[in-house]
Structure to design on (322 residues):
């Protein structure tokens, strides 16, 4: 697996929605025991998954040796694509592509750089290279859904790439229903819906609930079930175990209007309500709410601190109900 971004631990956690037995083997690269190609296409922080032919050292000769020694049952045309992750190895990708392409030609393949039947991926991370056939690539279309381009926009909206990742960690995908109890403009719900989830939003402000409905209708149409409730996140109008996962970006006290609750009371009670309606969740905030999550009946299985910019670090809590 070839990760995107700079945070391998977080990328691997998101990738666990599509793969089992993930093990990092170098900067930005990992191996896995099993991969679901369809789910890989919906990941935010994974570029691609390959069917591994072999592993070598970080030099062109080693990569070519892997190709020459591998058992290959495929036929047809090929292209070779090489990449060095984060400039972590001193390797010429052009040389790698030439050497591995020559090895494949020697084995009877024809090269087609425009429309190949198979793509061989050679990825270098640190002192390791992984060589394999591309089986799935993530769809990198997040720029087409910039928050400022939505029918309804409010400042402070989360980037679509992050929203997709948090939705995936919470279990988004076909046959799942995802809730955002503080949905704002609906960014998390849009991304959860685009990977096949039914989605439910909730927001205390009538303006935000109306705007989120407009955005969901624009991006999801009739492809998935979606709806938004105007309501209090501390008293959700949902039955117990109504959804499969919950994701929410807790208000940042200095930015947000909180009409009925103190911030501490709001987040604590919202965590309790989330645990009532869902078995798993993701809480994103500008500080740690670990103690409050534990008190609300969650296990905090993972935490990440993700820097957005100089003045904001997002604390990500991955939750499973006790």
């Amino acid at each position: 697996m070839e990760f995107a971004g700079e945070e391998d631990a977080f990328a691997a956690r998101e990738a666990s929605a599509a793969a089992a037995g993930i093990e990092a083997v170098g900067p930005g690269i990992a191996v896995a025991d099993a991969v679901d190609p369809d789910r890989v296409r919906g990941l935010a922080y994974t570029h691609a998954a390959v069917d591994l032919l072999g592993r070598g050292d970080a030099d062109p000769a080693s990569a070519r040796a892997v190709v020459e020694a591998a058992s290959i049952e495929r036929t047809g045309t090929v292209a070779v694509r090489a990449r060095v992750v984060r400039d972590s190895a001193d390797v010429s990708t052009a040389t790698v592509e030439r050497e591995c392409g020559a090895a494949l030609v020697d084995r009877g393949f024809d090269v087609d750089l425009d429309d190949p039947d198979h793509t061989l991926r050679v990825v270098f991370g640190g002192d390791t290279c992984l060589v394999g056939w591309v089986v799935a690539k993530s769809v990198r279309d997040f720029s087409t859904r910039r928050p400022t381009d939505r029918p309804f926009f409010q400042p402070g909206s989360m980037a679509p790439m992050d929203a997709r990742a948090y939705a995936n960690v919470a279990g988004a995908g076909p046959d799942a229903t995802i809730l955002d109890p503080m949905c704002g403009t609906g960014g998390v719900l849009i991304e959860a819906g685009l990977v096949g989830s039914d989605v439910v939003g909730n927001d205390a402000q009538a303006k935000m609930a109306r705007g989120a409905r407009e955005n969901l209708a624009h991006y999801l149409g009739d492809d998935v079930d979606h709806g938004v409730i105007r309501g209090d996140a501390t008293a959700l109008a949902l039955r117990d175990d109504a959804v499969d996962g919950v994701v929410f970006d807790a208000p940042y006290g200095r930015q947000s209007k909180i009409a009925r609750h103190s911030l501490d009371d709001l987040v604590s009670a919202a965590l309790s309500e989330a645990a009532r309606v869902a078995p798993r969740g993701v809480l994103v905030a500008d500080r740690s709410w670990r103690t409050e999550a534990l008190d609300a009946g969650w296990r905090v299985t993972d935490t990440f601190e993700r820097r957005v910019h100089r003045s904001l670090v997002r604390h990500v809590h991955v939750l499973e109900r006790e």
About this structure: The two ends are 31 Å apart (CA to CA).
